[in-house]
Amino acid sequence: MPTVSIVRCGRYDLSEVRRAVEAALAPLGGIRAFVRPGARVLLKPNLLIPAAPERAITTHPAVVEALIGLVREAGGEPFIADSPAGPLHNPVGMAALYRKTGMAEVAGRTGVVLRREADSLQVPTPEGALLKRIDLLKAWKEADVIISLPKLKTHNLTLVSGALKNTFGLVPGLTKPGYHSKLADVDQFCDMLLDVVACVRPALTVMDGVLALEGDGPSTGGVPRPLGLILASPDPVALDEVMCRLIGVDPGSLALFRAAERRGWWPADIALAGVPLEEAAVRDFRLPAARRAARPMRGRRWLLRLVTRSLTPRPVPRRGRCTACGDCVRMCPRGAIAIAGRTAVVDDGLCIRCYCCHEICPEAAVDLRFSPAGRLLRLAGLM
Hints:
By secondary structure, the protein is α/β, with parallel strands linked by helices. It has 2 domains: 3-280, 3-Layer(aba) Sandwich (Rossmann fold), CATH 3.40.50; 297-379, Alpha-Beta Plaits (2-Layer Sandwich), CATH 3.30.70. The chain is built from 15 helices and 16 strands. The chain has helices at 14-25, 61-73, 91-100, 103-110, 138-141, 163-166, 176-182, 186-200, 236-246, 255-262, 277-280, 301-310, 327-331, 356-360, 372-379; strands at residues 3-8, 40-45, 77-80, 113-114, 120-124, 133-137, 145-149, 151-155, 159-161, 204-215, 222-233, 271-274, 314-317, 337-340, 343-346, 366-369. Strands 1, 2, 3, 4, 7, 8, 9, 10, 11 and 12 form a 10-stranded mixed sheet that branches. α1 (14-25) packs across α2.
């Protein structure tokens, strides 16, 4: 029976975060249940794009710093690694990422190593349900222990982004669009995510829910939402189930949990520790406009394609706000975006609704807009 801890943490003061993390780990056996002396420990935060901590897009540096201290007290050797979205994994991009997200400041105080290289390796996964080889950062191979530090966020494709989604960050940046392209069906995409989880095998997950992200997450389209919570568990599926119930989402409605069910990972009895779930839960957490994308249709592929093209929101770069930087062009797995008239333009016939462009746009210039049919159905309360 997996245990999930829920602890209140009202602000990102380091001492308060440290106290909350220790309290969350206590029912799990403390940090020493996961870290042995001399162990190389990869701390894997969610560093999607270079965004300031107060935007709630990335894991807050105070949470990362608290784990650095705890790992060292247990005798471990922590280091930080992640691969941001798209073409950002290069020396210039990684320097900006670590600086903007506050990780460079943490490294300056603690001396922790920030891994910048994009070197990767192909890992055979013969037991994978979908993928038999997975591309991962070499830094993953060098670690004895993986501690995942996700942010509590919404996501326009999978509806939520938490413990399970965070491991996808160890797939090298420019490889991610390839998976999006090959696995445009959300069921397949979620199977891929679970194959990555099974390969990476995080020993512990500590979730930053002090300041969450609601609305059109997981990036610049979302809105920060104070929840004041730290969650922890050795089981990422159980942790994500509790996260869903905290924000009013039925896990059984999501492709991610249906994929977990097919593997026998879910449902399972969960032991809760700390703040009771009903006390911590919020009733008005705003979900993405694209939430119907998380409910795939089965069997009728032609109907799925029709729904994808007509009834899911399409990315539309906003003229006047788009700077024609070209990040979305380079990121798009289907080559569906071009620059025309100093504005990005999306070919809707090629777009697979992966929303990578929406995620990585540094100017938050990619809107998600429903077709007229989609808007009518939303007004009628049918989607």
